Amino acid sequence: MGKVRLFVDDLDPRDYAGAIRRGLAWIGIERRIRPGDRVLVKPNLTFPRYRKGVMASPMCVEALVEALKDYTDRIMVGEADSGGYNRFSMDEVFRETGLLDLTKKYGVNVVNLTGRPARDVEVVSGHRRLKIPLPAVVLDDTDCVVSLAVPKIHMNTRVSLSVKNLWGCIPLPPARLRLHPYLDDVLCAVVNALRKPVAVVDGRYGLNRSGPMRGEVVELNWLLMSDDCYTADATCCRLMGIAPASVSHLVDGTTRKPRSASETEVEMNRDLARMPVTRFYLRRSWTDYLSLLAFRYAVLSHLAYRSPLAAWLHRILYWFREPFYDYDHPFEPRSGSE
């Protein structure tokens, strides 16, 4: 088996497509995508409208689709309903971000994965045997999955990059909430279930301090790509000044070894030492610790999200913390630009 291929370079926002084409060529995408293959682009779309550093830029999504058209005409852009406990429709996000226009412009399918037929993938986490629902179109009708992420801090998982972005392949927000306490093992099972996953990290902007939806926007202007999602994320962590070993889902829970390739197993287009490092950090508020407890422990997760007390607990929480979304006015008119 050959070396893992990794591309990282400065990004000129006026030439997303050129940078992405160079990256695809470097990682040898032609070995993963042949003419007629079915490709799913799974962008990080975790807010009802585009926010810098929070979600993949619509400009980057379009440039990626345009570049992938050099290899195959069968491209789908897919994401599931988001919002966690307070769910919102991905159909609305597609409209608000302009991604729905890709259908007419490039002939690609833009698909809400929620509501699609799904089948279960099994995973053992500790003493539990879990079933992960994944859309059949992702498991059976896709030859390559491209995880399009952004470099951001996450209050519960430390970072959210290309591996964590694949969490959104689980089509129903309630299922994701139920599986949070087992996230590390579930993510590994999702990555293993997908065909030929590829990572693209849109590093025009990052999100520091308190992600995944709020924090300090940082302008970075780099692009990172790899034919191995774990290696992409470990490298991205280094560019963020974060030790990859401090991110639990990037480490094998049994052996404590990195899931990413070692430096000798990676072939890069440039010396990583020549890339600037921007120091990212996590700073939680006291209300974030409540979310963290519900995220990590199954009993508290049930209490916070699925018990009869859940609605009351969230109302109390919103006395102290502003909700992540403005549910009375969740969408703003699309400006048509970044």
Amount of helix? 25-40%
Taken as a percent bin, the fraction of beta residues is 15-25%
* Weakly predicted, low-confidence segments: 327-338
Q: Whole-Å distance between the termini?
A: 41 Å
- The counted number of beta strands is 12
List the strand order in the largest sheet.
4-3-2-7-10-11-1-12
Rg value: 19 Å
Largest sheet: 8 strands, mixed
In terms of structural class, how would the helical and strand content be classed?
Answer: alpha/beta
Architecture, CATH level 2?
3-Layer(aba) Sandwich
Give the full name of the CATH homologous superfamily: LarA, N-terminal domain
Description:
- The structure is a single chain.
- With 338 residues, the protein is of the alpha/beta class.
- The model is unreliable at 327-338 (pLDDT under 50).
- The strands form 3 sheets. The protein has an 8-stranded mixed beta sheet with strand order 4-3-2-7-10-11-1-12, with helices on both faces.
- The chain contains 12 helices and 12 strands.
- The chain is globular, with a radius of gyration of 19 Å.
- The N and C termini lie far apart (41 Å).
- The longest helix is centred in the first third of the chain and has 11 residues, at 16-26.
- It has one domain (4-284): Rossmann fold (3-Layer(aba) Sandwich).
